[in-house]
Specification:
The complex is a heterodimer of chains A (about 200) and B (about 160). Helices cover about 30% and strands about 20% of the residues of chain A. Chain A is of the alpha+beta class and about 200 residues long. In chain A, strand 7 and strand 8 form a beta hairpin. With about 160 residues, chain B is α/β, with parallel strands linked by helices. Helix content of chain B is about 45%, strand content about 20%. In chain B, strands 1-4-3-2-6-7 form a six-stranded mixed sheet. In chain B, helix 2 runs parallel beside helix 5. Chain B is globular, with a radius of gyration of 18 Å. The termini of chain B are far apart. Classes of the chains: A alpha+beta (about 200), B alpha/beta (about 160). The interface between A and B is medium-sized, with 27 and 22 residues.
Chain lengths: ~200, ~160
């Protein structure tokens, strides 16, 4: 009887703690390998980097002004990182029917004009974005060598002005992983454009 | 004397209208405390509030922005706060044009110099950060919608059924 009461209590209490609705990877989850077509025509994914000490995965796109505000900063970060040890993989998951500016051809053009120093892959099937549960662009994930999610959120704390940034969340997360520590914070929020997902 | 001050007042009015250009809309800047009191304010009173987060560059935001104008016409007692999230450089050129002759019954705000990571959790703990997003507060109850309302009816039903 006591047991039943206990269970009822827990059930009752849990009503007050709504589990976040977001599905997809959370900090601490180990991701499944993914790959997709890169702008150079090859298939690129986590397995392309057998010696990686960690990964930066960013959901971005061609069209979102917030993603555009970050494209130089993403490129600068990729150039700063050792591309074998710390690959940065950018993923465009926007449906080209819903966002015509996000087609594969337009990705190639943007990467060329911006001199992207990182793979920019096209998640046409939207399998990758569904697995991650990314909701907006830009949306950053930092993984350790075991592909365990260590950080989810923004690149830094100022989208408006790169010179006014005070917290470099992604770079700090990388440094923490390099020092065998957990990033703090492990999640942050930022404004972004909703990823154009087709109905599942 | 009377006439003089009357002319004086007229002159001031004329000047101030001129300084503002064609627009007499103002945007109120919010800091974290003001935002907190806005989203908590009506929890204990009867005021019904709709708080929408939008930007001129956000296409779905611009599609649904007129819903808020329409719902204000249907429910004049509603308080509608439109919180603009444009880049600072676009306020004069883009935002002012949008609000200039529209959304008369709505109050327009901006968040100044705040990191999203600080203010977003104040609005809703589960908000991932995509916009548009809308918070409805009615008789102490809150409903948060991340993403665009499918149509005006969805907004209206959410408000009525809350």
């Amino acid at each position: 009887m006591k047991k039943v009461f206990g269970i009822a209590c827990i059930a009752f209490i849990s009503l007050f703690f709504r589990v976040p609705l977001s599905t997809g990877y959370q900090v601490g989850d180990i991701i499944k390998d993914f790959e997709a077509k890169n702008i150079d025509g090859t298939s690129v994914g986590t397995k392309s980097f057998p010696n990686a000490k960690g990964y930066v995965v960013v959901f971005t796109c061609n069209t979102c002004p917030y993603a555009q505000a970050y494209q130089n900063r993403i490129n600068a970060l990729a150039k700063k990182l050792d591309d074998k040890a710390w690959p940065l993989i950018a993923i465009n998951s926007n449906d080209k029917g819903m966002s015509p500016g996000d087609s594969f051809d337009q990705m190639k053009q943007l990467a060329k004009s911006q001199g992207y120093a990182f793979p920019y892959i096209y998640d046409e099937s939207q399998e990758i974005v569904r697995a991650f549960g990314a909701s907006k662009t830009p949306h950053f994930y930092v993984l350790d060598a075991n592909k365990k999610v260590k950080y989810i959120g923004a690149l830094d704390d100022n989208a408006d002005d790169a010179n006014a940034v005070t917290k470099h969340y992604v770079e700090d997360a990388i440094k923490a992983i390099q020092n065998n520590m957990d990033p703090n914070p492990s999640t942050t929020r930022a404004i972004g454009c909703g990823i154009k997902k087709r109905a599942a | 004397m009377c006439m003089k001050s009357f002319i004086c007042i007229l002159f001031i009015l004329f000047m101030s209208a001129d300084l503002n250009g064609q627009s007499n809309r103002s945007i109120v800047l919010l800091d974290l405390d003001k935002l907190k009191s806005m989203v908590e304010a009506s929890t204990n009173n009867k005021e019904i509030q709709i708080i929408n987060f939008w930007a001129s560059w956000c296409i779905p935001c611009m599609e649904e922005l007129p819903y808020f104008e329409k719902i204000k016409q249907q429910f004049p007692d509603l308080k509608i706060n439109l919180i603009n999230l444009d880049f600072e450089k676009d306020v004069k050129t883009k935002v002012m044009k949008i609000i200039d002759h529209r959304y008369a019954g709505c109050d327009i705000y901006r968040l100044q110099g705040l990191s999203a990571d600080d203010w977003m959790p104040v609005v809703n703990a589960e908000w991932s950060g995509s916009i548009p997003s809308t918070l409805i507060i009615k008789a102490g109850k809150k409903e948060f919608k991340e993403g665009k309302f499918k149509d005006f009816e969805e907004l209206k039903n959410l408000l009525i059924n809350l």
